[in-house]
Amino acid sequence: MVNSTHVSYFILSAFFHTGVFKYLFFTIVMCLYVCIIGANVLLIVVICVNRSLHEPMYLFLCSLFVNELCGSTGLFPSLLVQVLSDIHTVSAPFCFLQVFSVYTYGNVQFYNLAIMSYDRYLAICHPLHYNTRMTSNKAAMFIALTWFFPILNVVIMISLSASLQLCGNIINKVYCDNFSVVKLACSDTTVNNIYGLVYVFTVIVALVVLMFYSYMRILRVCFSGSKQTRQKALSTCTPHLVSLLNFSFGAFFEVAQSRFDMSSVPSMLRVFLSLYFITFQPLFNPLIYGLNLTKIRIICKSLLFGKV
User: Fold this and answer.
1) What is the three-class DSSP state of 17?
2) pTM as predicted
3) 43: Cβ–Cβ under 8 A, 6 or more apart, which residues?
4) Bridge partners (DSSP) listed for residue 170
5) 142 CB neighbour count, 10 Å cutoff
6) Where on the phi/psi map is residue 306: left (φ > 0), alpha (ψ -120 to 50), or beta?
7) How far is CA 45 from CA 73, 268, 299, in A?
8) How far is residue 2's CA from residue 213's CA, in Å, rounded to a whole number?
9) How far, in Å, are 76, 110, 289 from residue 36 at the CA level?
10) 109 pLDDT more than 90
């Protein structure tokens, strides 16, 4: 048994010996990280410097892209170091910092997608009142809340986890996550469990209900409105809905892997799917929004290829 006072580092046991292939994996991970940084920074700059994009929908997108940069930076530098290293350990303070980065990313992403669905609901179902019900000030307030509440939640969660007495230091992941730390506890985790359940069944369920209600009302307009209304609704909602489904898939597998025995799943596949929600979502979102939203696509083309 390892006493909590002596747990100064954690061992990430999901890494396996790759020999000379570690340089190939390092190159692949580095390319992914560079692509994520480039794509998200490009769209952040496009939205910030073009006044025609200073509308609530694009401000929410900018917040989404900033969050993806923060989440990726919380994972990839550490992952790159671990890929090249033969000893896969991480200090306890850095482990909790990574938990903060990854969990804040996941929470902010979910909040942001919920607010974006509500924004599309107002724009499509109440177009005449949209400008009064979703002003720039209200959009800024929503963005502030989508960051404040997740950060507050994660800080409380980490505070509860950091106070636990741990009887081990082996995390069966390629990065630190809160549930893996809690499973190492030999002290009572009732408070942690109650806090997690209360958060899930209040905040998360409320956000799911908001998204479900918004998209049900949008679909109702699509089926009952004119062809022009239907096309407009589909063109603006499709990226949001696809992004939500993609993130939900990745997040679902990550939660399932933490809670259930996945030993029958090949190690490589487990690692790939555990990284999916924080690796491919930040790469996927800039592509789908950049290609599907006409204003962004036109400005990006003009920046990259000259006037079109």
Assistant:
1) coil
2) 0.89
3) 61, 62, 65, 286, 289, 290, 296, 300
4) 11
5) 21
6) left
7) 18, 36, 11
8) 49
9) 10, 19, 14
10) yes
